[in-house]
Write a structure and sequence with these properties.
The complex is a heterodimer. Chain A is an all-alpha fold. Chain A has 11 helices and no strands. In chain A, helix 1 crosses helix 5. Chain A starts with 11 loop residues before the first helix and ends with a helix. In chain A, 41% of the residues are buried. Chain B is an alpha/beta fold. Chain B is built from 12 helices and 14 strands. In chain B, helix 3 packs across helix 4. Chain B folds into 2 domains: 221 residues, P-loop containing nucleotide triphosphate hydrolases (Rossmann fold, 3-Layer(aba) Sandwich); 64 residues, Alpha-Beta Plaits, CATH 3.30.70. Chains A and B meet through helix 1 and helix 4 of A and helix 2 and helix 3 of B.
Chain lengths: 270, 315
């Protein structure tokens, strides 16, 4: 006999969208409250890009084409490192009492995760925009037209989306913010054991094979191809089918971690 | 709409939680529009019971219903009808007070406009209108508690769960929460409140369930519980602490001494006769008393008698 009746006339599917939008607004409101964090979050990959272009690239005596080689890899690396940002945000959120209130309300419970993913994807789009802008300034260009370039961006965002759901699931398994540090340490070798900074041909045999089969490398090779940027072609099956793998790897990760994460979130608290 | 008369039914509810038997056959029935206190030491199962009733935990066995809806199979119906004030603030610390309430209103499907109106109304009612824009992390403990309570009332719930609502509040904050609870009950809301403060249960609740080890050890009104411990008590405060022992010897057997407060407490089987006898005996022995009173036993004494534990120590 609640005096405050709830609004009728919207179907269940309507509430899934409405609740997801409310939770997305929540994340956007967090940004508005902490603009400095957003700026730092965008500045960090830019700093890495400039550092590797001028410091490391200069030291290696590479010519002006170094930016052409490096930018696609740095874009992919930024997407991969998004795993940490997602994990950290989810673990922090789960330790907060507000999650209990959400779970005791008649809302679509998955909207907490949808809000997280929409916000993280928007942040990633912003990061890609800023980094391609900085890349342009240091001499990087795309050469195969806008459609191919947008295809490259699509592959990068697909990788980010896979990292997003992997991160959400890992965060729920790890449970505590301290555990995020352990995962952060593991993300770095996965990020660097790729073709972001060097061609696999230049590496010792077995290492080169590991690097070529790294999901990151598939995205980097495919993105270089679509942008028309130089990069090692490699001789392996993985390198020859980079575009296929750049889709298959992330889709496989999403297929595994999306249902796991949604199911686990519904069971939080036991 | 309601299907049964009782607001809350727990029937032989079991729950193992984190390797412990948190609930071990808990039974509880709460009538509509009443305030029911669940009283017990830490670890007695109070919070587990509230979390099961508010659909946050699934019971392992037994029946748990809120206004006739099963917490497992009809969780959505339950969630539409309840408000929850947990032990820890269930608020988004980074957002403002108004942003919090408006968000909760939208998630309760009030619609954007009504969620805003409702948020403003609650902020005004809880004296938070001026600070509605400030992020919650800058709120004081009392303000946070008030906002949390406002958030639990976003849809005027039929049943409100308050899990240790005044733990950690100063006396003023406690009084504020108490008066809010009293005004809610006037509006017909059913309240289930857990507390480790015996005084709080005594002040607010129509009925009290004493729980220990995940089951109810005693159940009734404050008066019937007090009656179960036995008769009334007489308290004497002597002026001179050195006379405590000799004064105690003059009173009935079973006197308990509290040297710090110069207090003697003893059973008073026959109220008036005991009082008259005590006054006369003290007068004849020339012992000055600052205070003499006959009273009902406190819930503290009830708790100790029924669980074999000191509630203050247990808490």
């Amino acid at each position: 006999m609640s005096a405050i009746g709830t609004r009728a006339g919207t179907g269940a599917a309507g509430w899934v969208l409405a609740d997801s939008w409310t939770m997305t607004r929540r994340e956007l409101a967090h940004w508005a409250r902490q603009p400095v964090r957003i700026v730092v979050g965008l500045a960090f990959p830019v700093m890495l890009l400039l550092m590797f272009t001028y410091l490391v690239g200069g030291g290696r005596g590479v010519d002006g084409d170094h930016a052409e080689f490096l930018v696609p890899g740095m874009l992919a690396l930024t997407m991969a490192f998004g795993l940490e940002a997602t994990m950290l945000a989810v673990t922090q959120d789960l330790t907060k009492g507000v999650i209990d209130r959400f779970r005791a309300m008649p809302m679509f419970s998955g909207s907490v995760l949808v809000g997280r993913s929409v916000a993280d994807m928007l942040q990633s789009v912003a990061a890609l925009a800023v980094m391609t802008g900085v890349g342009y300034a240091v001499g990087w260009r795309w050469h195969n037209g806008l459609t191919a370039a947008l295809g490259a961006v699509g592959l990068l965002l697909l990788l980010r989306f896979a990292m997003l759901w992997t991160g959400i699931q890992l965060a729920m398994v790890a449970g505590r913010p301290e555990m995020v540090q352990a995962v952060q340490i593991l993300v770095w070798p996965v990020g660097f054991l790729s073709n972001v900074f060097a061609a696999p041909e230049s590496m010792p045999g077995r290492l080169g094979a590991v690097v070529e089969w790294n999901p990151m490398s598939a995205t980097v090779t495919a993105v270089r191809g679509l942008f028309g940027n130089p990069g090692g072609s490699g001789g392996s099956w993985a390198a020859a089918h980079a575009e296929l793998l750049a889709v298959a790897w992330p889709v496989a990760l999403i297929a595994v971690f999306f249902p796991l994460a949604v199911r686990r979130f519904a069971r939080i608290g036991g | 709409m309601a299907r049964v008369a009782d607001a809350i039914v727990l029937d032989d509810v079991h729950k193992r939680y984190r390797g412990r038997r948190a609930l071990d056959g808990l039974d509880l029935t709460v009538g509509r529009g009443t305030v029911h206190a669940v009283l017990g030491p830490n670890g007695a199962g109070k919070t587990t019971a509230v979390r099961i009733l508010s659909t946050l935990l699934r019971p392992d066995g037994g029946r748990a219903e809120v206004v006739g809806f099963d917490v497992r199979s009809e969780a959505g119906e339950v969630r539409r009808r309840i408000g929850l004030l947990g032990q820890h603030a269930a608020l988004d610390e980074q957002l403002g007070g108004r942003q919090n309430l408006e968000m909760f209103g939208r998630l309760h499907h009030l619609g954007a406009r009504r969620a805003g109106v409702r948020a403003d109304g609650l902020l005004a009612r809880f004296g938070l209108a001026d600070t509605g824009r400030k992020p919650v992390k800058e709120y004081s403990g009392g303000m946070r508690r008030r906002l949390d309570l406002a958030a639990s009332l976003i849809t005027d719930p039929e049943v409100l769960f308050l899990d240790e609502p005044t733990t950690g509040l100063d006396p003023r904050g406690r009084a504020e929460v108490w008066s809010s609870v009293r005004s809610l009950v006037g509006g017909g809301t059913t309240v289930l409140l857990t507390t480790q403060y015996l005084e709080e249960a005594d002040q607010l609740a129509d009925r009290i369930s004493l729980i220990d080890g995940g089951r109810v050890v005693a159940d009734g009104t404050a008066d019937t519980l007090k009656a179960r411990v036995g008769g009334d008590r007489i308290d004497v405060v002597v002026r001179d602490a050195s006379q405590l022992e000799s004064a105690a010897a003059l009173l009935t057997d079973g006197a308990v001494l509290d040297a710090d407060r110069r207090l003697i407490g003893a059973p008073a089987g026959d109220r008036m006769a005991t009082l008259t006898r005590a006054v006369r005996a003290l007068q004849e022995a020339g012992i000055e008393a600052d205070d003499i009173a006959v009273r009902r036993p406190t819930l503290d004494e009830v708790f100790m008698a029924l669980t074999g534990m000191d509630a203050e120590v247990a808490a």
